[in-house]
Design goal:
The protein has helices spanning about 1-35, 45-50, 115-125; strands spanning about 55-60, 75-80, 90-105, 110-115, 130-135. By secondary structure, it is an alpha+beta fold. Strands 1-4-3-2-5 form a 5-stranded antiparallel beta sheet, with helices on one face. The model has no long low-confidence stretch (mean pLDDT about 75).
Length: about 140
């Protein structure tokens, strides 16, 4: 009786390994089929698009100013000041900034741009005023 029980257990011992191998094979096949169906690509993480010495800086703009800006564009930022009754001329504070994200709200829009240290400092200094984005089409 003991020997028949041992033979039965030896036969059954192979089944869990075979089942596990079959499940792994089925999961691999379903994963390969699922990824080849043309699922939309995931956007690259922001850190992957920043170069050494760059930071992601949020910029708030008027909605009309951001209507033509898309992710991947290069923009220049101008500071304008209309307070105090006299308008000062627009001043370029940062140029050739890579647009990482565009979020359009009801009254304003926000850009997330990749900027170097000096440009990020200029943007932060003028964040309270009006900023205008100009699309840069230069090569």
């Amino acid at each position: 009786m003991r020997s028949t029980l041992n033979r039965l257990l030896q036969r059954l011992d192979r089944w869990p390994r075979r089942l596990a191998a079959l499940v792994c094979l089925l999961l691999a096949v379903s994963s390969a089929l699922g990824s080849s169906r043309g699922s939309p690509p995931r956007p690259a993480p922001l850190a992957g698009r920043l170069h050494a010495g760059q930071v992601a800086v949020p910029v708030t703009l008027g909605q009309a100013s951001s209507a033509f800006v898309q992710v991947g564009d290069r923009v220049g930022l101008y500071a304008t000041d209309t307070s105090g009754g006299s308008a000062r001329p627009a001043e370029l504070i940062a140029d050739r900034l890579l647009v990482l994200r565009v979020v359009v709200g009801e009254e304003s829009a926000s850009l997330l741009v990749a900027a170097g240290g000096t440009a990020a400092l200029h943007i932060a200094q003028d964040a309270g005023g009006q900023l205008l984005a100009v699309l840069d089409r230069s090569p």
